[in-house]
Write a sequence for this structure.
C-alpha cells in the first residue's frame, strides 16, 4: 500500500490495509493493545449493559486508559517534585517507581514484576546480592480504595454533591459514579491534558448526567468548594508544589470549606500537616469520624492500607 496520505482508499482496500497491519503485529499482547487503542480513540460511545457490575465498569475504564498512557501515567505537561520532608522524602528519582494504581492493580503489578517487566529492588552495590526494595508511588486511587471510600468509609451519598480536588485521571469521580447515588460529582484539575482524558471517559461511558470536570486551580474556585457536601483529597499537593505553596493552599481550604462538609483525605491530615508549618490547629477545625459501614463486603485492603484513608467533618 502506498504511503501517500492524499490517496483515497475504497472500503475493501482499507480493510486489506488494516488486515496487513494486524498480521504484521509481532505478538498477541501488541495486537490487543493496538485494538484497545483503536477502540479508545475511534469508537466512542459505550453503552453499558445493566448487567455490568461496578467493578467491571471500573476495570473497563482502566483498560481503556492503559492503552493510551504509560504505566506511571505521568504526562510531559506536568512536573512531579519528590518531597524533601516527611514520610515520602525517600521517593528519590532513582529509587522510586511511579505506577498508577487505578490503571494497574496489585495483581497486575505482581505479574509485571514476575515477568521481569518491572523491577522490585535496586542494587546497593553493583553486581552484588545487596539490594533494597524500590518505593512504589501512585498518583491515583486504586480500585480497592475506591470501594473502601464509597462503600465503607462514607455514608450513602444520595442527593449529595461530591468534589474531588485534583481529579487527574478521574478515578475518584468514576468510583463515586458507580458506587454511590451522589446527585453531582465534580472534579477540578489544574492540568488541561488530564481534563481532556477525563472528559473522553465521561463521554464514552455516558457519565455526563452526574459528572462535571472543571479545569482550573482550586485556589481560584471557592464557589466550587462551598457547593460541595463531600470533598475527596488524595495527596493533592505534596508531589505537585513546594511546601510554602502547600501551606497557603491548606490555609485557603481552612478558611473556605464550610461547616458540616465531610472531608476524606489520603493520607491523614495529621500526617500531611506534620511536615508543613500551616499554623492550623486540627482539633479546632475538624472532627475525625469512624467508617460509616466498617463491615462492608468485598474490601481486600490490609489494615495498614485502610488506615491511610481518613474521614473528617468540618466543625
Ligand atoms: C495525587 S493526584 C490525585 C488524583 C485523584 N484525585 C485520585 O485520587 O485518583 C493530585 C492531582 O491534583 C492536581 N492538582 C495539584 N494542585 C492542584 C490545584 N491547586 N488545583 C487543582 N488541581 C491540582 C495535580 O495536577 C494532580 O493531578
Amino acid at each position: 500500500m502506498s504511503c501517500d496520505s492524499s490517496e483515497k482508499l475504497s472500503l475493501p482496500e482499507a480493510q486489506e490495509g488494516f488486515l496487513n497491519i494486524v498480521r504484521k503485529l509481532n505478538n498477541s499482547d501488541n495486537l490487543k493493545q493496538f485494538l484497545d487503542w483503536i477502540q479508545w480513540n475511534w469508537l466512542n460511545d459505550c453503552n453499558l449493559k445493566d448487567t455490568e457490575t461496578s467493578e467491571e465498569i471500573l476495570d473497563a475504564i482502566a483498560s481503556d486508559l492503559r492503552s493510551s498512557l504509560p504505566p506511571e501515567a505521568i504526562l510531559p505537561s506536568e512536573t512531579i517534585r519528590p518531597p524533601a520532608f516527611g514520610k515520602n522524602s525517600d521517593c528519590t528519582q532513582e529509587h522510586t517507581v511511579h505506577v498508577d494504581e487505578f490503571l494497574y492493580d496489585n495483581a497486575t503489578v505482581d505479574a509485571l514484576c514476575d515477568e521481569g517487566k518491572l523491577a522490585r529492588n535496586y542494587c546497593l552495590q553493583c553486581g552484588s546480592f545487596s539490594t533494597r526494595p524500590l518505593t512504589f508511588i501512585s498518583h491515583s486511587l486504586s480500585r480497592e480504595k475506591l470501594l473502601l471510600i464509597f462503600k465503607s468509609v462514607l455514608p450513602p451519598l444520595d442527593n449529595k454533591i461530591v468534589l474531588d480536588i485534583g481529579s487527574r485521571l478521574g478515578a475518584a469521580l468514576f468510583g463515586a459514579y458507580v458506587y454511590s447515588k451522589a446527585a453531582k460529582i465534580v472534579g477540578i484539575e489544574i492540568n488541561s491534558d488530564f481534563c481532556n482524558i477525563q472528559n473522553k471517559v465521561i463521554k464514552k461511558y455516558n457519565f455526563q448526567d452526574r459528572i462535571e470536570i472543571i479545569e482550573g486551580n482550586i485556589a481560584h474556585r471557592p464557589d466550587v468548594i462551598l457547593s460541595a457536601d463531600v470533598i475527596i483529597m488524595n495527596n493533592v499537593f505534596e508531589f505537585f508544589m513546594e511546601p510554602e505553596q502547600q501551606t497557603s493552599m491548606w490555609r485557603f481550604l481552612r478558611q473556605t470549606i464550610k461547616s458540616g462538609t465531610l472531608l476524606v483525605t489520603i493520607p491523614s491530615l495529621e500526617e500531611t500537616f506534620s511536615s508543613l508549618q500551616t499554623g492550623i490547629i486540627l482539633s479546632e477545625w475538624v472532627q475525625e469520624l469512624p467508617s460509616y459501614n466498617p463491615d462492608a463486603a468485598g474490601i481486600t485492603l490490609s489494615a495498614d492500607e485502610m488506615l491511610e484513608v481518613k474521614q473528617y467533618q468540618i466543625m
The domain at 143-314 is CATH 3.40.50.150 (Rossmann fold). The longest helix spans residues 28-42.
